[in-house]
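User: You have something folded?
Assistant:
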Amino acid sequence: MKMKAEKKFTLGLKLPTDPRWADISTISLQHILTDHAFCEQKATSNIISLIQQYSEREGIVELLSPVVTEEWGHFRMVIAKLKERGLELGLQRQDEYVKKLVKGKKKGQSREGYFLDQLLICAMIEARSCERFKTLWQNLDDTDLQEFYYKFMVAEASHYKLFLELAKMHFPEDDVMVRWNYWLDYEASFISDLEVRGDRLH
């Protein structure tokens, strides 16, 4: 008897975004753009931290430095879009998705294990962000915003691939994929329980 193949979504994610999110997020463009801006700012900070902690590792400085520049450029793009729309940058909010995600890290693991998890957590956040941007691109009626989020979707997919490639550069591919599947399963275990909110990117 053949087992039923597991359905895969964007970049291998186990569960898609709740379709209600795209509709809700359009109600308050200022809130979703504000959260998006701070997500880009935090991505910049996280990558800088990764470079600082693992600067001796092959490819970390050379491959991630351009991503720092790109992520900060994304922050500026979102700020410009807010200004273009006559909107103001609101206050930063706690990212419940990322807060929940990092709880999946092993406690008391080695520096090497922490390094692998950091790379894979970054890959996971980029994958989910890509999927969210794809959802907006496919569902928004605003042509300008469709084009805006399409660019971010492509960029996040590229970053996702880079973090996985870095993981495979430093660890055996089989070990990386075992741990990556753990993160896919872990994210799926809580993503549907998070409140569907239009003022959050994640």
Helices lie at 20-25, 29-53, 60-84, 96-102, 111-139, 143-170, 173-191. Confidence is low (pLDDT under 50) at residues 1-6.
